[in-house]
């Protein structure tokens, strides 16, 4: 792995409604823990999407594992995404498949046999506390269960980096602390973690447990947040 | 697309098919279209084969046979027949020429006039049966020579009146094949529409698959397999129904002429087996192209 997991150099993103991100530069070192914050609509989700290639920068250079994301074709991007675990803002499951199948989906799409990974899957699901919900379908799950399932799916391929968009968006305080602990545990295992959240209390709760850098989007720019937290 | 790619697309992981929900109206549409089209192809094929058979048979019967009729007063009939046979004997391309005996002529006429035909009292023309060789005779030249040497001779080379029938049979065969091509094209178009609708309806699923690192080939494969198997199954049912229909058509008989000859004969029955395979192939390529396009569009 290169020196940087994700690197943005003067990245701007403009859409029909105007410029959302302007001249953003930041580096995520391997094993680092970052929060991305800012008011709703500031562009946190957009920045995350840029990081896993769901959107492309309007200008500037964005590299993931030292690969310029704009230069990749769709298949190369797919392969890159297997190294980037994403917890999407709305989780996004295949509702007609069971929870276990959904969590195993990355194995299936990358051609890894699910039977040989069965232990891995079982272990992962009990780690997030869903060992008893394997056969449930996503619409039957609670908010917290969905978030944990999405996290399990994001890490089943042992990615080097985990991007989580509002992972505590729909859950109570207890559950948000539980999710935070899971993410911190992943970071202790060496994974780079980036959490987008507008929830300041979550960031404050994390400060005692992990050394985290806080990035704030405001006025289309990215700032390193200071001691005001 | 290479053969390896085709086989990967078709084989895939059977569980991978499940990433696309099995329901939706596109499934029924594909089944129905494939079935109905296969049913039609069976009949178009039967028509094409039957008309082809008839065209071939008529054409081969025509080539090689002709009749010479000699209309002359009774006292000249024998002499003119003799002269005609001489002319025919000298004509290149005539393999054999034979005057029909009185009994044979009665046998030809009796279906029309009854067996008690008083042949001696009626001025019946003498018939000479001509068999052509390879290459055939020069009909125009023969007519001219007969006109000069055997005034009562009329050459009937059969082709004159049967030619349009052979022509018609050949056109029917052509129409049959064109119909099959058109049905194939229409099937491709409808399956493309169904595949597009299914891809659009499942855009959310495609997004999830992309999120977890699925390549275009994996996503396209899931759709391609669904549609290919559906089309195969629909076409199989349609083909079987069509073949049953053809089987129930009346047997070929002389009285029925062409109409009762529509159907399959012998090895022809194996041909419809190809229809479900072709249906599946059409669905395969239509869905593959639609998926490629849609996945590019959705990126
Ligand atoms: N491609 C786009 N088309 C239309 N609106 C967009 C597009 N990208 C971003 N936006 C808008 O930009 C704003 C920022 O969105 P988002 O990144 O989701 O912010 P956050 O996650 O910080 O709440 C939203 O108002 C969103 O509607
Ligand atoms: Mg957001």
Topology summary:
The complex is a heterodimer of chains A (229) and B (299).
Chain A: E1 6-15, E2 18-28, E3 33-37, H1 44-51, E4 59-64, E5 67-68, H2 74-81, E6 84-87, H3 99-109, H4 118-127, H5 143-155, E7 161-165, H6 173-188, E8 192-196, H7 200-207, E9 213-218, E10 221-224
Parallel strand pairs in A: 3-8, 3-9, 6-7, 7-8
Antiparallel strand pairs in A: 1-2, 1-4, 4-5, 9-10
Helix pairs in contact in A: 3-5
Chain B: H1 3-11, H2 25-62, E1 65-70, H3 74-90, E2 94-99, H4 102-113, E3 126-132, H5 139-149, E4 153-156, H6 159-201, H7 203-211, H8 216-247, H9 274-297
Antiparallel strand pairs in B: 1-3, 1-4, 2-3
Helix pairs in contact in B: 1-8, 2-6, 2-8, 3-5, 6-9, 8-9
The complex binds adenosine-5'-diphosphate and magnesium ion (MG).
Magnesium ion (MG) is lined by residues 44-45, 89, 165-166 of chain A.
Briefly, what is this?
The complex is a heterodimer of chains A (229) and B (299). Chain A has 229 residues and is of the alpha/beta class.
Features:
heterodimer, A: about 230 residues, alpha/beta, Rossmann fold, 2 domains, six-stranded mixed sheet, four-stranded antiparallel sheet, 7 helices, about 30% helix, B: about 300 residues, alpha+beta, 4 strands, binds adenosine-5'-diphosphate, binds magnesium ion
State the end-to-end CA separation of chain B: 21 Å
Low-confidence stretches of chain A: none
Q: List the uncertain runs of chain B.
A: none
Indicate the CATH class of the largest domain in chain A.
Alpha Beta
Spatial order of the strands forming the largest sheet of chain A: 6-7-8-3-9-10
Please give the alpha-carbon distance between the first and last residues of chain A: 32 Å
The total domain count of chain B is 2
Cα-atom Rg of chain B, whole angstroms?
Answer: 31 Å
| CATH homologous superfamily assignment of the largest domain in chain A | P-loop containing nucleotide triphosphate hydrolases
């Amino acid at each position: 792995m290169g020196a940087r997991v994700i690197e943005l150099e003067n990245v701007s993103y403009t859409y029909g409604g105007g410029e959302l991100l302007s001249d953003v530069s930041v580096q995520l070192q391997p094993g680092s823990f970052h929060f991305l914050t800012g008011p709703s609509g500031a562009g946190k989700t957009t920045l995350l999407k840029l990081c896993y290639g769901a959107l492309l920068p309007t200008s500037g250079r964005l590299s993931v594992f030292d690969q310029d994301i704009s230069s990749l074709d769709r298949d190369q991007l797919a392969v890159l995404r297997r190294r980037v675990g994403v917890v999407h803002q709305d989780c996004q499951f295949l509702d007609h498949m069971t929870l276990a199948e959904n969590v195993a989906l990355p194995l299936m799409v990358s051609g890894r046999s699910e039977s040989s990974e069965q232990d891995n899957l079982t272990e992962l699901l009990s780690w997030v506390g869903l060992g008893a919900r394997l056969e449930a379908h996503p619409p039957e799950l609670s908010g917290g269960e969905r978030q944990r399932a999405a996290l399990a799916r994001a890490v089943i391929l042992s990615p080097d980096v985990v991007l989580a968009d509002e992972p505590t968006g729909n859950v109570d305080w207890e559950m948000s602390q539980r999710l935070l602990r899971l993410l911190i545990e992943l970071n202790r295992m060496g994974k780079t973690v980036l959490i987008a959240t507008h929830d300041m209390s979550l960031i404050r709760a994390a400060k005692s447990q992990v050394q985290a850098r806080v990035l704030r989007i405001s006025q289309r720019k990215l700032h390193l947040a200071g001691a005001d937290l | 697309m290479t053969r390896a790619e085709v086989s990967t697309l078709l084989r895939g992981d059977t569980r991978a098919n499940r990433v696309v929900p099995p329901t939706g109206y596109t499934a029924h549409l594909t089944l129905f279209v494939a079935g109905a089209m296969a049913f039609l192809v069976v009949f178009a094929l039967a028509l094409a084969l039957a008309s082809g058979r008839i065209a071939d048979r008529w054409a081969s019967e025509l080539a090689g046979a002709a009749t010479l009729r000699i209309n002359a007063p009774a006292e000249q009939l024998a002499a003119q027949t003799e002269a005609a046979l001489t002319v025919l004997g000298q004509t290149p391309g005539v393999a054999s020429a034979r005057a029909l005996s009185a009994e044979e002529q009665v046998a030809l006429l009796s279906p029309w006039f009854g067996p008690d035909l008083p042949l001696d009292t009626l001025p019946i023309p003498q018939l000479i049966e001509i068999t052509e060789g390879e290459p055939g005779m020069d009909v125009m030249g023969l007519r001219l020579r007969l006109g000069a040497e055997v005034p009562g001779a009329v050459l009937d080379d059969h082709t004159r009146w049967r030619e349009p029938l052979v022509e018609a049979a050949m056109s029917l065969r052509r129409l049959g094949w064109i119909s099959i091509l058109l049905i194939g094209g229409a099937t491709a178009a409808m399956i493309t529409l169904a595949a597009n609708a299914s891809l659009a309806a499942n855009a959310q699923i495609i997004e999830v698959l992309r999120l977890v690192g699925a390549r275009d080939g994996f996503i396209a494969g899931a759709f391609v397999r669904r549609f290919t198997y559906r089309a195969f199954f629909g076409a199989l049912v349609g083909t079987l129904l069509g073949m049953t229909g053809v089987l129930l058509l009346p047997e070929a008989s002389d009285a029925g002429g062409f109409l009762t000859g529509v159907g399959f004969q012998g090895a022809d029955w194996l041909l419809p087996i190809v229809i479900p395979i072709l249906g599946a192939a059409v669905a395969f390529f239509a869905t593959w192209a639609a998926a490629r396009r849609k996945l590019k569009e959705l990126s």
